[in-house]
Amino acid sequence: MQIQKYLDLNEEELTISCRKCGETLCNADENYKEHSAMRTGPVTDAGPAFEPPKKLLGQDPNLEFRQFFCPSCGVLFDHEFAREDDPILHDIEVDVDSIKA
Amino acid sequence: MSYLVNVDIGGTHTDGVVIDEQGEITDGKVASTPDDFSAGFFSSLEVMANKLGTDIEGLLNDTELVSHGTTVGTNAVLEGDDVDTKLVTTKGSESVLSMMRGAAGRTSGLSVEEYLHMQEVTKPDPLVSKKDTYGLNERIDCMGDVVVEFDEEQARDIAETIAESDVDSVAISCLWSFLNPDHEERMEEILEEEIDSDVFLTRSSDLTPTWGEYERTAATAINALIGPSTSEYIEKIDDRLEELGYDGTLLVMQVGGGVAPAEDAIREPVRTIDSGPAAGMTGCSYLADTLEHDNIIAADMGGTSFDVGLITDGEPITKATNVVRQYDYSIRNIDIESIGNGGGSIAWVEENTDRLRVGPQSVGADPGPACYGQGGEKFTVTDAAVLCGFIDPEYFLGGRESLDLDSAKAAAESLMDATGMELMDVARGVIEISNAQMADLISQRTINKGYDPRNFTVYAYGGAGPLYLPSIANRLSVDEIIVPTGDSSSVWSAVGISSSDVLHRNEESNMRTFAPFDPEDMTEQFSTIEDDIRADLESEGFDDEDIRLERYANLSYGLQVHEVTVPVPSGELTEDDMGEIISRFEEKYEQLYGEGAGASQTGFELVTLRVDGYGESTKPSLRAEAAEAHTDGGIVETEEIFWPAENEYLDTAVYYQDDIGPGMDFDGPAVMRLNNTTVAIPESDSGEIDQYNNIIIQS
Amino acid sequence: MATDDQGHEGSDVWEDFQQGYVPEDNLDIHPDLDLHEQYTKDIDTVTYEVLRHRLWTVNEEHGQTLENVSGSPVAYFGQDFNPTLMTHDGEVVFNGPYVQLFSPIAELQVKWILENRSDNPGIEPGDIFISNDPWVGSTHQPDVFFVAPIFVDGELFCWIANTLHQYDIGGKSAGSFVPGASDVFEESTPIPPIKAVEGGEVRKDVKQMYQRHSRMPDMVGLDFNAQVAGLQVTQEQIHDLIDEYGAQTVKGVMDRIIEDSETKFLEKIRELPDGTWRAREFMEGSKTGDDDLYVAELQLKKEGDTLTFTNEGSAKNEGSMNLTYAGFRTAISCAVNPMLLYDQLWVTSGAYRHIDIDTDPGTLNRAEYPSGVSCGGTLSIELSIALIYDVMTRMFSASDETRDEIITDPLAGLIVLSQAGMDQWGNPFGTMNLDVMGTGFGARTDKDGIDVGGILFSPKGKLPNIENNEQDYPMLYLYRRESEDSAGHGEFRGGGGMDSCFIPHNTEAIQTVVAGNGGVTPNTRGIGAYPGAPIRSRTVDGSDIEERFENQEIPGDIEEVDGDMETYPPKAEFVQGAIDVMETRSPGTAGYGDPLERDPEKVLEDLKEEIVSEEAANDIYGVVFDDDDERTVDEQATEDRREELIETRLAESTIPAEE
Questions:
Q1: Distance from C-alpha of C136 to C-alpha of C630, rounded to nearest angstrom
Q2: Which of B341-345, B393-397, B475-479, C524-528 shows the lowest mean pLDDT across its residues?
Q3: Which of B99, B481, C304, C352 lies deepest, with the highest CB count within 10 Å?
Q4: Structural domain containing residue A19
Q5: For residue B560, what are the CA distances in angstroms to A3, B53, B593, C76, C643?
Q6: Chosen domain end from B226, B255, B290
Q7: Distance, first Cα to last Cα, chain C
Q8: Is position B591 within any domain?
């Protein structure tokens, strides 16, 4: 089943894979982002319209822009802004038991 | 003979009428010809000439006035004409048309159900793209003062660039030009020097000097977009009429009510958009004057839509802006609200909830309702009326066409399956739901705006209006319905055009003028506007006694937004007049918005002054020739007809065209199957036909 | 605590006032109040459709009456109001098409009144209660609810309510929006539901107490009349309907409208797998002058037919940035309505039957008294709506039935600009600049968002004309336009926001308060794409604008103007002097899908319309253009550039699990 624009969940194998190239990323109960190719950069990597946080806040909250790509075909799965120490957000967690049932 | 000839072109039909001196109406309904609308115009003339036993030349020889309502402009703006239009505006304001005032751009003119479906909505294609928009170095402020001088050199460069490109028309619309038109006028001069004379030029301070740059610029851009094709079209008709021997002026219907001579209409074609329904309203106010009705609900039901307008104190209610293709634009127009609910509206069943719904989609002229037997498979309101028995399948449109009852039944089957309803329950349901939607629209137009529908008379017209409106009127406790001129009600817009005077309307925004108002200033301002209008009308050949000038002022309370229009006396104004204007305003405000709604403690603001200048044209006589009185309609036949509101078959009197005439009385339940329309009189109603052939139904 | 011999206690009022009222499934209503609970289920299809349309019309007319009688610019231009029709126990039957936020919590007001006003002072025919208490059921204090019961034969049949944003209802800042507040005591004092009209008669004492809150008692008094008139006109119309169709039938139709919305909601929800979806975003500053970041987290758990929201990990409530339970509850409708219930005319009550809110009190998205909440109707609710979109669009991605309904972004930030001073007509002025309405509208799964499409859940809220603002306030605009590169890049890009640039005009200076959020990072992410641009405000102080005007020049961009450029934090307070040029940017919205998948021709179109810069076209979309006058896409170079960008992506990445 498709669980996101670029992600499939294989209901037999209980794995998550890339819809573009078919690459298997991880088990269905894991955070696919931990198994994606993650690029970390400053907030200004989000586009020309973004300003460095320090310029706006007068202090640096250590924010970063994280992008998650398919490690095989490089398609952009998702992004998140986070402080350096923030864990990678587990934003999609399908209940594996409910699928098996 | 001296005829008035009127042709009204609609999306599907072109309706013509010839009215003779006795008020006898001859109609000519033909299919519209979208490839070249003028073809339909002349074939309608031909049909009418033939009915009168002559040819087009013969008809035009005896014609005093030809008037015309056209949708060419509407079509051009809806379908996006292949026109190269440029916009010149103040630098910094180039996004005025693409931004469309934010959310307004994705919701204006759409029904609630359409704009809530946000997966689908978008803003329309730009009227003029940004690459065709030029920003001028110039700036005027809200006092009309110049902040940045007009940059001659840059303006000249822009004009040259435009001149070098493929260009059909140019719109000029700068910030605050309605207070100070100098910069726009200068730009126009420079453009006139640089570009070909056949390029259509229009500027906002001339077309519509009103506050609010988006609506003003949109009006100017639309005028420019449709200018080339509309003026070509009007000129074509004008020339052809002249060739055929017509030596009068061609008058063109305007959306604000009134007609304009062809030469004016050519400069301001934006005023022809939606002028068809406006013509119907003008006809209603002319008839209302004759019948001494003050308050009218004008209800026009055709094949695809139901339009409602109000006349109060004899005057159609107008509004300052109109909408086309989701663009709000400031051209004063007769305020008509419309929903997708006509004879051709499709009945359908909503998924999951199994609700029976009617409209807003309709089948259009092709293939038409299922009963037309032209391959239409959708069940429509008209199919329901055929099943109920209102329309005789063998005698449709005066027997010119016959209908296919079996196709109507077949089309109902999917609805029956989905809802589990019987055939006649479906028919009843479709008509009841359609009627409820129309009743709700009328109630919104009246109760909502501070009017009690019980103080109104309903004028029911359009091909489908007379069949449904009497039942709806009962629901709204309106006790009188008029089907104007009987069978000609189906071509009422065409009749309405001929009852319109030539209208010149000038408005002037009067920013930040608070009471006490200065009578001398106001007199001077009005006189200036009046002089302009009088000069225009005189140049069109109107004598002093045919010119009528009416003054109006729009006022609001200091901290409230509603503007109310009040009439202003003519001539030299006095302090007393100022007091009178304010008390009229307060009175009308309270009537419209409720007792205690006005914040007089925040002061009174004079927002705009307006003068309507009329050049009186020849009007049709509505008096029917003293026809032989049909007091009882002869021997009345009856049929079993199913009445949806009553939910039962009733033994119903049935009249045909030849059975009826002035002086006749009738009692419901009755059905009149006329040549072009059907009138249904409910059981609780009765009525008569007056000397003008108006069918008057009372409950 | 009110206890009487019949065992009626109501809700725990003082706990409600502390943590926010959360109604139990069974309301504790005084037994002397009879509810009209019977209805017929036997309603034929036609009657149902006719009455459904009629009830919608009656409710819409209610809104019109309110707008007409009020005549206030807030109602008319901002459309900052909404009428609501509810059942006897407060479930929403219809809300108007105006500001959505008000209606779903009219339910809370009604339930609270039923529980706590049914014994004393009692609920009687002709009564009207007023309330703006954010801990009972308002987004913030300026949004005042007028709520009236309708009785049939001595039984409480249904409720109607209207909500209208007031010019000023007190507190330390004009307009009652106090971004600088440290707690609620610097804001307007909340008014819990009190009876202002008794048996059809206005209680003068209560009306005066209410007006006395405001700097503008006259205007508040007019709106009071308008809100009462709206309810009274609607009362009559409902009575007419009941007379015509019978109470059982009208109630049956109300019930079925809610049931239809529930059916639609469940049908869609049941296509989705169970699971948990999470979001984390930031509030920038708890009040004006505070530049710290505060984390806001949200979890959405779906189990069977139930959706549960939790906010584990969210920062504590502090300053003025907070949202009460009521505000959070209504924020949910801003996602559920447009994406799942658009064909039910936004009737959300059926969905609310299956939504649980289990958030922790004392947090910025479940504020406890006495934290500041007057920004609840704007900034704090914006953050919650953004978080709710973030989790819901991800959940909706998991089924074919719901994926196509996704709209990526409601508004990922908000910039509220308050201006005050002396106007060009010589009068003092103070306003919230309505340029705030010029936000982008999010991307859909098969089409782009809408540039300057306006706030999603306020479909009738228009952006003012430049001429409107220049007439009413001492300003002169240098430009107002779609903000370049503000649309979140994607296969289907988001809608771009708006740049507004202006100077004071015919005044010495403008006192300026910027209250914004989503200025460092935007608060929604879209799906597989880039975020929309954040808000921004900046000035060039002591500029050379006067010389430029002398030289017949209007600058095309604030960066062209000479002077001292200052970029402000999202929450700031300063004076804009006569020659200080100011620019604000309202936010863009996030995209859908990888920008490398976008049709290059569309990128070219965006370049020509100045929506996308060449830099972004090249580096984010990987589109390369031929260097000729009529620019065209260089297909081969584009293909190569895109391959190169993919290689770079992977070369610059690591796989966290393998670290």
A1: 61
A2: B393-397
A3: B481
A4: 2-86
A5: 52, 61, 12, 9, 60
A6: B226
A7: 59
A8: yes
* Placement of tokens 């319109």 in the chain: B500
Query: Is there a domain that residue B367 lies in?
Result: no
* Domain-embedded: residue A60: yes
Residue B240 lies in a domain: no
pLDDT-above-90 percentage for chain A: 92
Question: Using CA atoms, how far apart are residues C136 and C18, in angstroms rounded to an integer?
Answer: 10
Of the CA atoms within 13 Å of residue B249, those in its CB half-sphere come to 20
Length of chain C: 659
Parallel, antiparallel or unpaired: strands B695-698 and B686-689: antiparallel
- Measure C556 CA to nearest chain A CA, in Å: 17
Spacing of C-alpha B509 from chain mean position: 25
Q: Which residue has the higher pLDDT, B156 or B339?
A: B156
C279–A95 C-beta distance less than 8 A? no
First to last CA, chain A: 15
Per the document, the length of chain A is: 101
| Sites in chain C below the pLDDT cut of 70 | 1-6
User: Using alpha carbons only, how large is chain B's radius of gyration in Å?
Assistant: 26
CA-to-CA separations, B631 to B485, B628, B690, C555, in angstroms, rounded: 17, 9, 11, 79
Q: What gap in Å lies between CA C116 and CA C133, rounded to an integer?
A: 14
Q: Fill in the amino acid letter for C648.
A: T
Q: Which of A47, A83, A94 sits opposite C398 (nearest CB)?
A: A94
Residue B450 or C332, more confident: C332
Residue that is written with structure tokens 């989905």 in the block: B418
Looking at residues A77-85, what average pLDDT do you find? 97
Query: Mind listing the pLDDT tens digit for each residue in B88-109?
Result: 999 999 999 999 999 999 999 9
Q: What is the mean pLDDT of chain B?
A: 90
Residue ranges of E strands in B367-496:
457-461, 480-483
Min Cα–Cα distance to chain A from C147, Å: 40
Task: Considering only the C-alpha atoms of chain C, give the largest distance between any 2 of them, rounded to a whole number of Å.
Answer: 89
Q: Is there a contact between B113 and C404 if contact means CB atoms under 8 Å apart?
A: no
Residue of A56, A72, A97 to mutate, testing the C interface (most C Cβ within 10 Å of its Cβ): A56
For position B632, what pLDDT does the model report?
54
Instruction: Please state, in angstroms and rounded to a whole number, the distance separating the CA atoms of residues C104 and C328.
Output: 11
Indicate the domain borders of chain C: 13-266, 411-592, 595-658
A near C: at least 3 beta-carbon pairs less than 8 Å apart = yes
**Average pLDDT of the residues of chain C:** 94
Helix (H, G, I), strand (E, B) or coil at B139: strand
Distance, CA of C433 to CA of C532 (rounded, Å): 22
Strand order in B85-90's β-sheet?
A: B133-136, B85-90, B169-173, B200-203
Q: Are B255 and B331 in contact (CB under 8 A)?
A: yes
Domain boundary among B549, B580, B615: B615
Q: What is the pLDDT of residues B273-300, one digit of tens each?
A: 999 889 999 999 989 988 999 999 999 9
Q: Does A92 fall in a domain?
A: no
* DSSP 3-state of B309: strand
Structure confidence at residue B34 (pLDDT)? 79
Query: Which tokens in the block code for residue C350?
Result: 């059926």
Greatest Cα pair distance in chain A: 53
Q: Residue B125 belongs to a domain with what CATH number?
A: 3.40.50
Q: What is the extent of the structural domain holding B609?
A: 502-615
DSSP, collapsed to helix, strand or coil, labels residue B261 as strand
The distance between the two most distant Cα atoms of chain B, rounded to a whole number of Å, is 83
Count of domains in chain A? 1
Q: Which residues of chain A neighbour C489 with C-beta distances below 8 Å? A: 47
Q: In this complex, which of A80, A90, A95 lies closest to C273 when CB atoms are compared?
A: A95
Q: Quick one: pLDDT at residue B689?
A: 92
Task: Say if A24 falls within a structural domain.
Answer: yes
Q: Give chain C positions within 8 Å (CB) of A63.
A: 282, 293, 520-521
State how far the Cα of C319 lies from the Cα of C570, in Å rounded to an integer: 15
Q: What CATH number is associated with residue B564?
A: 3.30.1490
In a domain, B549, yes or no: yes
